[in-house]
TrEMBL record:
Signal peptide: none annotated. Keywords: Monooxygenase, Oxidoreductase. It comes from the Bacteria. The keyword Oxidoreductase applies. This is FAD-dependent monooxygenase.
Length: 352
């Protein structure tokens, strides 16, 4: 019997997780990733509730627990750096927190033996027909697949090609920000510092690495337009937002310009009337991002991947039925997480 050929775009979390379940269900799975190699960006991801069951089912929960830095909590400070309160570790870390690099490497390791990974390439065109999807790639040869699944993040190329422009799906939550790392000159160890003003927030933390300090500088914005601008313009926006701020702010702005892991993003959600079009569907942030402020992105990606795979396996080859049931089951969970994302964005100065 010929295996169903599935193409997954994106090799971060949702894509490899879905590939794991589909491979075990007998599918012929290819994952395409535009990065030249496995991505090591991202600082920490956390898991809550049912996501832990997914990790257990995949056989990696115990291994991931070994990577938990066991954060001790976050100290709230005012504009002078004086402590005003404390937040427990669970406020940011969930029930389990690990460096994202550890998660992506483990997911790749447990799938690489039975899943075809293609790095340094991306989808450039999709054409559906009665028996499949013709896929054109930026570098590779044109190929045929039975199903195509976008697991390629907020700015999903699959969603753009199959569902329409990013602007039609993205909802900006009023926050943008930059992340980077610098020398841990404050001596933080498995702890964080949070300083907020009505329109800005500085969050500093160390995941147990004595030498490095992770920095997040967020500020109120009216759109996500800066996401598509160059680093110089993004840095200028950050400097303007934090101009005149005291405490460690000037030193952090200087470190931002020197950082080689600079990352800028806006806090957005993805809202679509339907997550599927014919033989193409979406999973994780590509289809229903709840925003980083929800604290549920990684958990939602894992649960979404398992839910989609389970429905495909039980539908007996009827992808339309599987996609519909997947969406019906998951939408209430996504709606709850997206509401959390909106409310937390407001707490950090967003205008959602």
């Amino acid at each position: 019997m010929t295996k169903t050929k599935v193409l997954i775009s994106g090799a971060s979390v949702a894509g490899p997780a879905l590939a794991y379940f589909l491979q075990h269900d007998g599918y012929d799975v290819t994952v395409v990733e535009r990065a030249p190699e496995l991505r090591d960006n991202g600082y920490a991801v956390d898991f809550r509730g049912e996501a832990l069951d997914v990790l257990e089912e995949m056989g990696i929960l115990a291994e991931l627990r070994e990577h938990d830095p066991k954060m001790t909590g976050t100290t709230l400070i005012d504009e002078r750096g004086v402590e005003t309160g404390r937040l427990p570790a669970e406020a940011f870390a969930g029930e389990l927190e690990v460096p994202k690099q550890a998660l992506t490497r483990i997911l790749h390791r447990i799938t690489a033996g039975g899943v075809r990974y293609v790095f340094d390439d991306s989808i450039s065109a999709l054409s559906q027909h009665e028996s499949g999807v013709t896929v054109e790639f930026k570098r590779g040869a044109v190929s045929e697949f039975d199903l195509v699944i976008g697991a390629d993040g907020v700015y999903s190329k699959v969603r753009q090609l199959a569902f329409g422009p990013h602007a039609d799906a993205l909802r900006h939550l009023g926050l943008s920000g930059v992340g980077f790392s610098t020398a841990n000159y404050l001596g933080l160890s498995r702890s964080g510092l949070l300083r907020q003003t009505p329109d800005t927030a500085i969050y500093l933390f160390s995941l147990g690495t004595a030498e490095r300090l992770t920095v997040s500088l967020s500020f109120a914005t009216t759109s996500s337009a800066l996401d598509r601008r160059g680093r110089d313009e993004q840095e200028q926006a950050v400097r303007a937002a934090f101009a005149g701020h005291g405490w460690e702010t000037p030193r952090l702005l200087e470190a931002m310009s020197e950082a080689d892991d600079f990352y800028f993003s806006s806090t957005c959600q993805v809202h679509l009337d339907h997550w599927s079009r014919g033989r193409i569907t979406l999973v994780g942030d590509a289809g229903y991002c709840a925003a980083p402020t929800s604290g549920m992105g990684t958990s939602q990606a894992l649960i979404g991947a398992r839910t989609l795979a389970r429905n495909l396996a039980s539908a007996g080859g009827d992808h339309a039925s599987a996609f519909a049931t997947y969406e019906a089951e998951l939408r209430p969970y996504v709606a709850e997480n997206q509401e959390k994302g909106r409310q937390t964005a407001k707490m950090f100065g967003g205008g959602a």
